[in-house]
């Protein structure tokens, strides 16, 4: 167990479906909580509505009753399974879920994220529901909290960590939010991507290395070249895979969300495809 850390309160969010108790984000959050002696809050998003709201007054009351019962049943079952899994592992947990089809889907989640040290979410499935994508954006932009995105269920203390460093305020915030994880690493690489115009991150990479050394964190600088094409995340993704990194730390949405939505960008690329868990901060 890791003592004297700042990861006291973790939030994990997942959908109300039959596999909720074995969701990768939940498994990772519970393992992280065991290692850091953290308390966990789990928020269960309501399942998607089965059909649109009926237009006729006579059928609307029936629809509301049926959907309320279905949401309560599925969410309650998921909450019970999550509670049982945490109890078996000895992790203190509080579970909340939506109760009505008219509850705002994300307002309670945002409120919880604002008062937790780290929010753990499932990585985005490009072909699946957009719940994870929306939850990640709400946590980053509306809650102001660091987010750990993972497709891996098993938590292991990261021993090799890469920092995607571009000198931005978002990257700096991500580093500070990740100090508790960086302190346990044996190897930290400060990764800067350069193109024909150079790299903003390379200019301050030495200063970041000095900053980390004040905490006893030894780091080295890795300079990698940008690759032609639209996939801005490819160089970083290849680096963490080739170097067998355990965790990636990076700033999120350094450019505007509009530009990211239209043109893509490193954040979007790595959210959809990254071989390791990512800690992001905006």
Give an overview of the whole structure.
- The chain is α/β, with parallel strands linked by helices.
- The chain folds into 2 domains: 9-150, Rossmann fold; 160-281, Rossmann fold (3-Layer(aba) Sandwich).
- The protein has helices spanning 24-36, 57-89, 107-113, 131-143, 169-177, 179-182, 200-213, 234-242, 257-263, 266-272, and strands spanning 9-15, 39-45, 93-97, 118-122, 147-150, 160-164, 187-194, 219-225, 247-251, 278-281.
- Helix 1 (24-36) links the parallel strand 1 and strand 2 (39-45).
- The two termini are 29 Å apart.
**Spatial strand order of the main sheet:** 3-2-1-4-5-10-9-6-7-8
- The class by helix and strand makeup works out as alpha/beta
Rg calc: 20 Å
CATH class of the largest domain: Alpha Beta
What is the arithmetic mean of pLDDT?
A: 88
The rounded distance between the terminal residues' Cα atoms is 29 Å
The tally of strands reads 10
- Pattern of helices and strands: EHEHEHEHEEHHEHEHEHHE
The domain tally reads 2
Q: In CATH terms, what is the fold-level topology of the largest domain?
A: Rossmann fold
Write the layout of secondary structure elements.
Blueprint: E1 9-15, H1 24-36, E2 39-45, H2 57-89, E3 93-97, H3 107-113, E4 118-122, H4 131-143, E5 147-150, E6 160-164, H5 169-177, H6 179-182, E7 187-194, H7 200-213, E8 219-225, H8 234-242, E9 247-251, H9 257-263, H10 266-272, E10 278-281
Helix pairs in contact: 3-4
Summarize the entry for a quick read.
This protein has 282 residues and is α/β, with parallel strands linked by helices. The protein folds into 2 domains: 9-150, HUPs (Rossmann fold, 3-Layer(aba) Sandwich), CATH 3.40.50; 160-281, 3-Layer(aba) Sandwich (Rossmann fold). Helices cover 41% and strands 20% of the residues.
